[in-house]
# Entry
Amino acid sequence: MNVILTKSYEESAQKGAELILNALSQNPALLLGLATGETPVGIYRRICDAYRDGNADFSRASSVNLDEYVGCRAEDSYRRFMDDNLFSNINLPSENITIADHTADPITEVNRLRKFFERRTVDLQLLGIGPNGHIGFNEPDDELEPHVHITPLTKSTMDANAHWFADGVVPERAITMGMGDILRARTILLVVKGESKRAVLRELLNGGKVTTRNPSTFLLLHPDVTLITEESLTV
Ligand code: PGA
# Structure
């Protein structure tokens, strides 16, 4: 694992955006795996700025999102988050965007996304990490799922995400890429932001073991992971 330690989240976001923009300039038809939450916001802002300044072209690129809530309101959906933070501000063609439809039948959506991953390989997967070590919505458990699936959310995840919902009520289920879908990405960029991630980050950096209790440790099995985080979170 290639570890980049920074002085601040802003520096992490800058480095993350640079890595993504470099990958795009080397491969204009890049398939980007995208994440939602607090962590990627600063990265997406810099990518939008680069597009506005004429330094990025997404016209041949495509994207697939890690996860989406099942049966949430449009304004609370990750689709809306992506539109607001990235898609509305860059020239990624709408037909090249893949994300579970929060209004559709979840089983139909799981099947549609499983077919997507049978055909396509993510070139660069952007990941955050949950305070409980989840990646996507692959929550700590005795067993982990390899493919796209519907998952109940743990209380820890619902609590961590409640601030995104106007009424504080978080959907209890989500559709998520599986661990195998994530680990098949050619390159993985993991960005860790926030004090609440300190314990799971330490386990990932210092433990050296893979455990379903901290799904992020499965990234130790991947040959090309770059981790960007603030140095202060690692001590
Ligand atoms: P956050 O969420 O970026 O909002 O901290 C990350 C995650 O839960 O994967």
